[in-house]
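Checklist before submission:
- one chain only
- standard amino acids only
- sequence pasted in full

Submission:
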Amino acid sequence: MPAQIDIGPVDPRLRDLLAPGGVMRAGTNLSNFLLVTGKSDAGEPVGVSPDMARCFADCLGVAVAYVTYPSPGPLADAAANDAWDIGLIGAEPQRARMIAFTTPYVEIEASYLVRDEAPFETPQAIDAPGRRIAVTGRTAYALWLENNLRHAELVYAGDFDDALTLFRDAGLDALAGLRSRLVTDARAMPGTRILPGRFMAVQQAIGVPIARAEALPLVARFVKAARDGGLVAALIEKHGVHDLRVAEPD
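Returned file contents:
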């Protein structure tokens, strides 16, 4: 893994904006198992996203402190409360009211789990009148579905496991989720299959609270250097999460 990313000169004023007192607080979503794969002996999150935060802190010459959240919704909400300095979260239009985002550094495919006998062959076929989809509320792909579905109804659950239970027990037509998670769900529920293709790809980025948007170009320089210079690919390899895909260059 590259030891350091070159992001060029850092304006001390922007460094102080992102790391008051010399510590950058990194808001981290623990529910995405592709991006956060475990905890260190010290209890800190481990994975691609935590490593991205640490590498950025190294570029700035500051320490990093992880501010963890059980899911992306509370992390996004906390942008208004000065709870974190950068947020490791999927970029979605609804969140852009409170968070300014870089371009993505990884993409994660989202698709549907359906029963074997279901008459669907593509994700797009599910968006029809009377169809109901189980989904984990306030995830990036749920927000995308809210913006893009025209006919099907979303039925919300609090977490991934609850969404699977809802799909199974309430007779819903499909379960929306990250493809890598749906593989696990399909094993847990015989008689189901994952539709080929995707309905969207989560654009995992780094955000800053709108109040600190002045510092976004500096964060964006880091993301571009990490993505295009091979750091992101090296982190994917390091953590063995090959269902992540390095985002396309700008």
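Reviewer check: The first strand starts at residue 23 and ends at 29.
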